[in-house]
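Exercise 7. Given the components listed, write out the predicted structure of the assembled complex. Treat all entries as one system.
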Amino acid sequence: MKKNSHLIIGTLAIGALALSSCGDSAEAGAAEEGFPTAPVEMVIPYPPGGGSDVLFRLMAEYAEDHLGQNIVPINVEGASATVGSRQVKDSQADGYTILGTHQVTAAAFHTNIVDYGFDAFAPIALGTATPHLPSVSSDFAEEHGIEDLEGFLDHVEANPGEVTWAFTTGSEDHYTIAAILDAAGIDPTSLNYVNYNGTGPQYAALISGEVDGMTGDYASGEGYIEDGSMLPLGVVNDERDPQLPDLPTVSEQGIDFTLTVDRGFLAPEGTPAEHIEVLQDAFEAAFEDEEFQDRVEELGSYPNFMNSEDYQSHIDELDSSMEQLADQMQEF
Amino acid sequence: MMELGLAAAAGEVAAPLTLLTILVGVFVGIIAGAIPGFTFTMALVLAFPFTFAMGPVQGLALMIGIYIGGLSGGLIAGILLGIPGTPSSVVTIYDGYPMAKAGEPARALGIGIASSVIGTLIGAAVLFLVGPIIGRFTLNFGPWEIFSLVLFALTLVAGLSGKHLVKGLIAACLGLLISTIGVAPAGQMRFNFDNPQLSGGLSAIPVLIGLFAVSQLLVNVEESRLDARPSSGASAPRIRVPYGQVLRDMWREKRNAVRSSMVGTFIGTLPAAGAESANFISYDRAKKAEKRDPENYGKGHPGGIVASETSNNAVAGGAFIPTITLGIPGDVAQAVMMGALILHGIAPGPGLFERQPVLVNSIYLSIVVAALCVLVVQTLLLPFLARVTLVPKAILVPCILLLTAVGSFAMNNRIFDIWVVVVFGIIGYLLVKLSVPLGPMILGLILGATLEEELLRALQLSDSLSTFVTRPISLTFLVLAVGSIGFSLYKVNRARKAPREAKASVTV
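Answer.
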């Protein structure tokens, strides 16, 4: 009998606990201003340790202080960042699942890897800008007397299909080099593209002489530029890079194209506007922090905050210009 | 300059807080490595935010502790339960599990622990002494060389198949086939059957856990039904550690230990070669080099444990070589550590050695300290771990099933991966019943993607297939591959001619 009464008390206690937790979630649903009442999951569609991963984690770290809830980064890698983006797209549109991404979302769509692009998401905020550095190996440059972007482009035009270029299919570096060639009036398919998974293996291929060129950035390429094994051809940005003051931008070299890798945050389409605003404000507050700005710059990127609305028009612009090159990005 | 860096690094690593950090890291790593389904890579990612607040040396020390501990921890579940925690401990179970089953779990664990410490130290010594030279040399490994190496590794299927060569080949092909699911290297979608969850392919870990853990547990359940007696019956396992015996085993396998460590270190150096295949190659080499009793490999031979555990730990020293000398991380664990460096404003790259001598030297020292921590922690844990074999199956099996499910989910945070575990658990059980060896299937799965990517890359770089035979290193591996197939055919033929003996066979 005594045993039984214990059992009953125990059952009641568990029941009460269950009820009270139900009450919590019901309350959360009713009171909109309560968002967020639980940690926000941030999907990073890349493996841990890469440039994107480090930047997104840093942004989450600083934004969660202002959000009042933890932002939990989760790596869901694979298939040109689309395994992660699909997971967020298909998750509940309540603001508790967000995606950290960049132009790859559009590039994967325009190269037909997936059938959805930015339009399947509601933008939250844009965070950082990272300029691309199209570069060639120093050995290749010496052999053909290439000193700058113009020399490189002339060489490609004169020798179509001979220059090998490391890239990742359906990724934003693919788009950048295609767009530069296009802006110079050269067929983007004149390069011999060689596929690598991410920038690490690309650098290995470049310094071993396996490929002639690749599209890197300062943070990951600093070591190779300093040690003289890699020659950057130009900065793909409006301004020169303060870390490489002698390197002209590509537009200074007559190529009318600028594109930075723009890392920002998306929520599934249909997420309540109030929730998006709460998240947007948390990221905005993080970007006002000077210590945070310094850390971003140490990583070779720039703070480039845009709110939800500006980010949307930024995306629209990108989408229409990428669409024009979509055909040439598919034949190789 | 280098001595100066070493002394300063010793000062930093020997600081009590850093030593404690390494010890904590090793402990966490061993736990993560020991639980089937969890990996030390996950532990590294979880520890990543903690390094924000630490100095670079201390942050790296934590990561290295987890890394070394995790590489070693995989042997525990492998030996005691026949469940490899990671692809790199698959062949540990070939001899570790039979030895534990035969009543000597403590001896098997002892050999495993000693081997992983020796492997780590030899890997670290190679890294320290000739790291930069090897780093430069590995740049000669283009897609042609890696393709040929992987092809060679695949021919080891024969050695892993025991008496069932054809079934082993079928298993390897199944593994290769599974590796083609998802996005192809050139961007096209394959075999996803319009299921978006399949578009990223099947990760190796849930498949591995399903094939080995779930099928093994199903077999356990079956055995305990057939055998109603409590497992602590007549042949109670000896859980007291036979230290002298372990030392004798290690001394007998000294050549094996050194050779396997070298193989592990070298394969660890090659970015993208799949360091998981190092233990398969070492095991095959050890078996072929064994003169006295090669037929005991797969039945609880100490040499099998030594080959697998020295090589999979030596991979650590090797994997650091491209990271430190070239700034190229060879695997995800290395990438996470590099991420921690970048966050501290230290750009890895060819100049890291000159710019940060103290940091680089502290990496070497941290590895050595971590190896010693592994020795101490695991030796202390050993008597308790060995008792796991006394736990009744009725309690053990559900607990491990739960852990594997949680671990596989945590890998990618997808419920889908738990279904992968379940489905491959059933497939694995059926394959075991049909005496199809599972090792070749995992080998096919982990190497398939690399094989295909490297082939595509090689053909994108030059249309000609002849490049594979005109590059000397590539040619060497191709010759080895042909030789390996020839050797297997010769052995099969000889076995067929010999009078058929008792059909006792070991398939794990």
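Discussion: Residues 230-234, 502-508 of chain B have pLDDT under 50 and may be disordered. Chain B touches chain A through 51 residues (CB under 8 Å).
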